[in-house]
Write a structure and sequence with these properties.
Layout (H helix, E strand, L loop, with lengths): L1 H5 L11 H9 L5 E4 L30 E2 L5 E2 L1 H15 L3 E5 L17 H19 L4 E4 L9
Parallel strand pairs: 1-4, 4-5
Antiparallel strand pairs: 2-3
Helix pairs in contact: 3-4
Amino acid sequence: HRYLKKFNLTMDDLDVTKDELEGLKKYPVDFISFSYYMSTATDITNENNEKVAGNLLGGVKNPYLKATDWGWQIDPTGLQIALNELYDRYQVPLFIVENGMGAKDELTADHKVYDDYRIAYLREHIQAINNAIEDGVDVLGYTPWGCIDLV
């Protein structure tokens, strides 16, 4: 709806055919996939709050959360909340297609990276998924982002 408002449009302005609407009814969405890296907090009462990093959304620092080396706040509970809210609204299976954390990994003298922080991040997020499943959410799958985070 934000896009429609931006261009001063309504649903009636869209060129949607009867066949397209019938197709949507005949072939509904089977599942929803999404990426989850962090939650976002806002505070409209104080413009001087410390800002947090993120690739799309900003926000203010939540003092109750830890953050990655790049300032992305770590919030596995936020993932559980997102799963519960999405499932409650749409009632279709959910698939987390991206999740993970980047870090400034240090290579040891024996050419290894000891990344207990990443293991903890993944463990906590997988536990949040399990909690959502116990809440009744139908979780179809989970894939950590391996392009850079897990190299």
